[in-house]
Structure formats: structure tokens, C-alpha cells
Sequence to fold (639 residues):
Amino acid sequence: MGRSVLITYPDKCLEYTTRSVKNLLPKSQQICHIDVAGETLRIFNENLRWATQTIGTNIETLSLGEDFQTDDIHYNYIVFLPALEHEYIDQIVDAVSSIVDNTALTTTNNPRGRWAIVISDQHLQSYSDLAMGILTEIYETYYIYDVLILMPDIKSGIIQKGKYVEHEDVNNITKDSYLLYSWLPFNVDGKQPILFDEWIIDEQNSSQSLGRNLFPPKLPPKGISINLTVSPLENKLIMIGKGNFTDDEGMIGYKYEGPEVNTLDMIAEHLNFSLRYGPTPSPEKKQTERIVEAVTPVALGEVDIAIGGIPLHSQLLPFLDFTHPYYLSGINWFVPCPKPYPRLKRISETFPVSVWCLFALVIILTVIVTFFQSQFNKMSEIGSYQSGVMCFYCMWAVILGVSVPNMPRTTSVRCLFLLFVWYAFVMNMLFQTFFTSYLVDPGIIDQVHTLEELIESDITMGYPKMADMYFFQDKSDPILVKMHNRSEDIPYGTHVTIIPKIIVDKNYAALLEEIYPEYFAKTMMHSKPLCYLDDRFSTFYLSVFLKKHIPISGILKSYAHRLIEGGLVDKEVNDMKETWNFKISPDANAYDDGGDEYFVFSVHHLMIGFYALAAGITLSSILLVLEHFHFWLFTKLKK
Fold:
């Protein structure tokens, strides 16, 4: 199956003619263009088997065949135009424009397709003027440029050196022919009709006089001498205005810099076309209003290109063409980064409660077994282990790593005592290892990773509720409902005050565009990390928007795609972000605490140990005083 064809014919019949179209049909008293279309369909079906659709100019569009789907487009067009006697050029051009306008309303319309316009039964006075009128009209109105015009050679001239020369003896003409006109609109010579060839028809067959290619490439790969206008959306981060100027013609132009501008200038320099940048929408307006203001002239055909970090949106696609997305961004919930774990809490959690309970149970059981073994060997064992209090005192001394008053004497008590010493040594080693490491780095509290965790946390949430039509579209989603109810409203553009609450205060989470926190962190808090949820809340595909059906859109998109695949666009974006590191604000020191990436073990980290030592000394001193007081009181009462 070849590429599809659309055939347009008038639904009126004309009187019998002796001109060239008669040779396409059997002899008859009357010729109808619908018969010509039918014969054309038969030829296509027998020889090419191309999917074909026919449309009458004065009747409703016929239904599509099974070979046509809603997402298919035509690649070839044949238009049979009824040019009646003594019509002016403007009337013929208007008729062509009306037919093309009807096809432009269909979903299968393809301005980049090949068009053949057949004009028959007309005593034309100026072939080149009519060709120029048709070519100019459908190009300027519908951006159709790959057109071949077939006009009957009433004068039956010949082509010499690319020009039409009338035949000297008109009465002796025995041939029927069509003149084949087209143009090369993007060449240096400009837009002018060119007589490509002549189609000669006789009773036997038909052929071209010169055998030239009737549809040569109209767009040269380089050297496109055209001017394009650009509608910019200035942004102080990705597209920066650099003032304006007045050119030689007295027109005001504007200068910008940024990844998109550099890439577009690179393509323009390679293809040899010029760019003129216009003014940017007012920064005082809402971002959505600025985007609409930037793309509206492109949709209306007043401007050729719109750039400035504009995301793809389904509502823009019917009115604009676009390049392959060059950058992936979006909006996300920026959350506090993990906090350092409190050292006292971390140390208290060195062993879980179950381990501490088991440890206490081992001590108690050891004391009990030691006491009863000493009682069983009362005559052999030393008296220190025959008292329950002294047994506990000795086991506690082993745990603390200090000497006991006396060593046990019997074999059974000695073995139990040795096992307990080993057990206490292992437990002490484990505890001291964790204790020392927690003194230096107690670790961090795990950050929030999902929207569900953020909603369930005690962190204050906020986002610009003026954008609920974008963020809160599905009101049946319970997660989004909770997010909406739990979040507070923050004015759009207040990220300068919101981000410090997230990074420094660590008590706030906000839904922001990714590029603004990244820029703020690099210029104001270069030593602070940014933390956000694992999954984006919404993703943006940034593209360059083009005027619908602009002739060079294919070349622009092709070169842009190559630059994206080659990594040049990513390099431009990374270079832009690298410049942020040299734009550190003088106020950045207010947020810089010197960084906490490295830990140095110092006396400060041992403060907890000193506090515990001080508490032990204080308690021991109190016990010493109480013992002295008890001894003094007991001695006095005894006397």
C-alpha cells in the first residue's frame, strides 16, 4: 500500500471539449469532472493501489474508506479546478483557495504533502501570472509550498531554455499538452514561478517533454534565506534579557541569553536564517498569563517561534507545533533534610528494652545461683559470697570493670564467676563501641520519602492554592484531598521566604518548581543540601513552540533533536547552572554555619561521659556521707 491520495473535483458537468482532457475518457457529447476523478481512481487502483479519498467542491465530503484512520494524513493531493471561459486570474486563485480551505478543515490535512492543481478548459492569457497567484496565495495562507500546477497549453508553445515560447504555426498543431509550473520559494532567487516541463498527450500515450523531476526538494538543507520572529518568555534563571537595540531599518530588537537562545542561535547560524526577538510579557503578571501571552502570537501566526521554558500542555497542541522536549523538570514537595539524631536519645537506644531486660535477668540469676552455691559449700566458700547483698555487689563490680573484694574459692562458683566475667566483657565491648560511635556521629533521622508519609507527619505543608486547577484536579483522590485540607496557602513567587523555612528551620514542606529552590540553594545556601520526595508531583516537558505548519518546522525539529541527542542542550543547561555558583549573594553567610559534613572528635563529644562521671561521683559522695552518718549514729546509740 502506497501513500494516500486526496482527489478534489467539481461536481458540475461541462460541454464537450476538444482540449486535452478528452483523451482521458471515451468519446461523449459531455464531459464531467467526476468522470475524470473516477478514471483517475481506476488508474491509481490498478497501477499503484494507493489509499484514495475523493471530495467534491460543492457537495459534502465523502466518507473515508477503511484504509484511512483518524490519525492518518494525506501525502498527495490532486485538485481538478473548473476554469470557465473569460475568468480573471483573481477568480481562479479564489477558487483554488476555497478548495484548499475545505481540505484544511479535515483531520487528514497535511500542508507538507505534494499538491497537483489541474486547470482545464480556459483560454488563459498569462500562465506565469496565474501560477504565481496560486502559489503565493496557498503558501501565505496555508503554508503549502510543494505545488505543481498543470495548465492547458492553448497556444501550444514549446519550452526553450526554461521559458515558454509560442508556436509559430498554430493551425498545424497536432498535439494536446499541459504546462507544468512550480517554484523554489526558499532559494536565493526568491519566489517566482518556474516552468518545469510540458506534459504532451496524444491518442496513443502521454509523456513529459524534458523528463524533469516535478517535485524536487523545495527546502535546501542549508542556506535558507528567511527571517523568523521569536516571542520570548523572559525568566531570570533560564532566559535573561540583555536590553534592546535599534537596527538599520529603525526597528527595535531585543537581546537575550540562555540555553534555549544559544541553541536556537546555533541552528540559525548553521541554516543561515536570521532571528528577531520581540519583547517579553510583563513579569508582574501571573506565570500562566505570561505563558499565554507568549504563545498566543505564535498560535495566531503573527510570530514564528516561542521560547522561554514553556512546558508542553494538551491545550496548546492543536494550535502550535513543537520540538522534541529538551529538558525535563517539574514541581515537587521540598521537605526538611534529615536531622541529626539526639545523642542522649541515641545512646539510650543503644540496646533495645528487651536486651536490657535480658541483661538484668542474667545478673539476677547469676546472683541467685552464686548465693545458693555458696550456701551449699558454706564451709569452703568465702563469706563475701554467702550474703545476697555482697553477691550482687560483686557482680555489679564485674559489670563496671572494677575489682571485687574477694575471689571465690570453690570450683563451681569460680566457673560461674568466670563465665559471667566473659559475658560482662562482651556486653561492655559492644556498648562502648556503640557509645563511642554515637558520641561522634549519632546518625540522622530518616527523611520523608512519599506524599503519604508527609501527610502523616507533623511537618507544616503549603503550596499556592491559586493553582488548584492544576494541582487538585482529581477531587476523588483521598491523598490529594488530605493534601489540600492539610496544606496552607502560600503566595506564588514567595520561595525566597519559604525555602529558608525548609532548609534551615526544618519545620516546613512546600510544593515548588524544582529550578527555584535549586537556584536559591546555590546562591544563598551553597553548603546546604536540598531534599525532596522520591517521586515528582508533576512533570514538565520544556519545548520550543513553532507556528503551526511553518515550512521549516521539520528542519528546525530535526536539528533540535540532533542537538538534544548529542548532549549539546544538556551542556548549555549545565553551563547555565554552573554560573549560579558564581552568583553567591552577600547574604549567604547568614545561612552558612560552616558546614557539618565532617566530624572531629573533641572534648565536646565526650560531655555526656563527663556528665555521667560527675553524676556517679556525686552519688558516691552522697552515699559516703550517709554511711559516715549511719556509722556515727549507730555508734552513738550503742553507747
Summary: The first helix runs from residue 33 to 48.
